[in-house]
């Protein structure tokens, strides 16, 4: 008679009873890092290799290559040498053994699984780019034409155009590279000025000053400098070049924990967008909508910032530019009512993604809190488990003030990710490191230019490499 009160089995218990559930093994890996290696192995095996991309992304996010290596032999036995070579290639790439990684990916690209074959070739192209071998990278990109999975089309286009720019194959400058977008921050940091010097106290003092000026933040800067001092003493480093390589690797290690992707795992997926006026919230929504539409998603915008008539008009312009539907109401309408109408529209037409614009009146925090909670309640009632994303838009130009805004919004509601705009227009790009260090919120998007394609997924490695890129000599 008390069966109603039985405890719901845990995910692990459910999988023990019925292990043939690859998606749930993947979920377990994402929720429990200690059990992730075995869970990722099971996700891969029980999916027959179909979840190779999701397993690879989770492996990269958790940085558990060493822990996963004992499973490679079993993977080879179950799925073939191509799969084990691919994951071994990822481990070698992480360790900086680029030639070995390339050789392993070369084995994996022969897979009969089109997705694994693509991923292996794509990794080879990216390695060539990292080594400055742009002619080889371009050749691989050309070979991949017509074979690119939908979810990779945008990234593929960005990288291919970057290579074309390097080789002078484009008639005009089509796309801004990440390194170009970070020029002002790179100039402010001036890390190349530290090369060829001896490691002494004055070097640490100057480095500390530069990091703070670039808005890395006092706490993060002190932690970085203390780490460098300890390691320099421990490793008996004499050259500043060695110290800069150590700094580069440490920054990558910090930022890899803040990597994140927009969650579109459910249909429909609701993205609730927050941010104060002037940070580029409407522009970010418009660019994201256009990119998603180009990737094959049907997108609807909800103009729930009804406090300002201009906000509705601006969103209308972007909806028209992106070629997506917009649900709106007159100024002063209850924002939750607009969201409800948008949800009914999404249900009726079975759309994939709903992006909700909200007001950003932080000066009236109590009212904003009630408004956001009401919107979330409506979304959760109509689409259980949603919103999939609560995205906070911050302006990189505001430096440390962006941290204050994020803390204020976190008091209002959960935040699942950050979109950092105007990174190309500021010398304060170090704020990325401060956000990661202090807020521990994934940075999912960064804006490095005016064009639609200049809103990019955040890539920690590319960001750090952009900070250390040396300007070509004019002599």
TrEMBL record:
GO-annotated molecular function: GTP binding; GTPase activity; signal recognition particle binding
Bilayer topology annotation: Peripheral membrane protein
Keywords assigned: Cell membrane, Cytoplasm, GTP-binding, Hydrolase, Membrane, Nucleotide-binding, Receptor
Record localization: Cell membrane; Cytoplasm
Matches recorded under Gene3D superfamilies: P-loop containing nucleotide triphosphate hydrolases (3.40.50.300), Signal recognition particle SRP54, nucleotide-binding domain (1.20.120.140)
Positions of the SRP54-type proteins GTP-binding domain: 442-455
Enzyme Commission number, as recorded: 3.6.5.4
SUPFAM superfamilies found in the cross-reference section: Domain of the SRP/SRP receptor G-proteins (SSF47364), P-loop containing nucleoside triphosphate hydrolases (SSF52540)
Coiled coil: none
Uppermost EC category: hydrolase
Pfam families (UniProt xref): SRP54, SRP54_N
GO cellular component, one term: plasma membrane
GO biological process: SRP-dependent cotranslational protein targeting to membrane
Residues reported to bind GTP: 275-282, 357-361, 421-424
Catalytic activity: GTP + H2O = GDP + phosphate + H(+)
Superkingdom as given in the UniProt entry: Bacteria
Assembly and oligomerization: Part of the signal recognition particle protein translocation system, which is composed of SRP and FtsY.
Database matches in NCBIfam families: ftsY
Protein role: Involved in targeting and insertion of nascent membrane proteins into the cytoplasmic membrane. Acts as a receptor for the complex formed by the signal recognition particle (SRP) and the ribosome-nascent chain (RNC). Interaction with SRP-RNC leads to the transfer of the RNC complex to the Sec translocase for insertion into the membrane, the hydrolysis of GTP by both Ffh and FtsY, and the dissociation of the SRP-FtsY complex into the individual components.
Family: Belongs to the GTP-binding SRP family. FtsY subfamily.
Protein name in UniProt: Signal recognition particle receptor FtsY
């Amino acid at each position: 008679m008390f069966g109603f009160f039985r405890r719901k089995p845990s995910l692990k218990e459910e999988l023990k009873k019925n292990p043939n559930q690859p998606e749930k093994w993947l979920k377990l890996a994402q929720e429990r890092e200690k059990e992730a290696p075995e869970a990722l192995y099971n996700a891969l095996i029980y999916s027959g290799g179909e979840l190779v991309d999701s397993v690879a992304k989770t492996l990269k996010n958790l940085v558990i290559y060493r822990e996963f290596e004992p499973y490679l032999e079993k993977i080879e036995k179950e799925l073939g040498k191509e799969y084990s070579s691919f994951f071994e290639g990822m481990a070698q790439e992480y360790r900086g053994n680029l030639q070995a990684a390339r050789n392993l990916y070369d084995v994996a690209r022969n897979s009969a699984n089109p997705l694994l074959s693509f991923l292996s070739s794509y990794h080879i192209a990216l390695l060539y780019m990292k080594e400055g071998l742009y002619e080889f990278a371009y050749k691989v990109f050309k070979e991949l034409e017509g074979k690119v999975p939908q979810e990779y089309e945008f990234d593929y286009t960005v990288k291919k155009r970057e290579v074309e720019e390097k080789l002078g194959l484009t008639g005009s400058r089509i796309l801004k590279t990440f390194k170009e977008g970070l020029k002002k921050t790179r100039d402010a940091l001036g890390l190349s000025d530290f090369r060829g010097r001896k490691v002494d106290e004055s070097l640490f003092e100057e480095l500390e000053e530069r990091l703070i000026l670039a808005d890395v933040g006092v706490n993060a800067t002190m932690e970085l400098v203390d780490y460098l001092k300890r390691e320099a003493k421990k490793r008996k480093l004499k050259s500043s070049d060695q110290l800069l390589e150590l700094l580069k690797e440490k920054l990558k290690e910090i930022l890899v924990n803040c990597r994140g992707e927009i969650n579109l795992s459910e249909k429909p997926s609701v993205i609730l967008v927050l941010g104060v006026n002037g940070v580029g919230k409407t522009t970010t929504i418009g660019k994201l909508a256009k990119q998603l539409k180009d990737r094959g998603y049907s997108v609807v915008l909800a103009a729930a910032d009804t406090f300002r008539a201009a906000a509705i008009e601006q969103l209308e312009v972007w909806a028209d530019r992106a070629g997506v539907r917009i649900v709106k109401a007159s100024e002063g309408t209850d924002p939750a009512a607009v969201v409800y109408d948008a949800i009914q529209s999404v249900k009726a037409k079975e759309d994939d993604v709903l992006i909700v614009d909200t007001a950003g009146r932080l000066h009236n925090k109590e009212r904003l809190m009630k408004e956001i909670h009401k919107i979330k309640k409506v979304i959760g009632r109509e689409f259980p488990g949603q919103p999939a994303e609560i995205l906070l838009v911050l302006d990189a130009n505001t430096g440390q003030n962006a941290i204050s805004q994020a803390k204020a919004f976190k008091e209002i509601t959960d935040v699942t990710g950050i979109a950092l705009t105007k990174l190309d227009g500021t010398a304060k790009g170090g704020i990325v490191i401060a956000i990661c260090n202090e807020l521990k919120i994934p940075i999912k998007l960064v804006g490095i230019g005016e064009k639609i394609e200049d809103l990019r997924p955040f890539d920690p490695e590319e960001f750090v490499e952009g900070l250390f890129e040396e300007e070509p000599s004019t002599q």
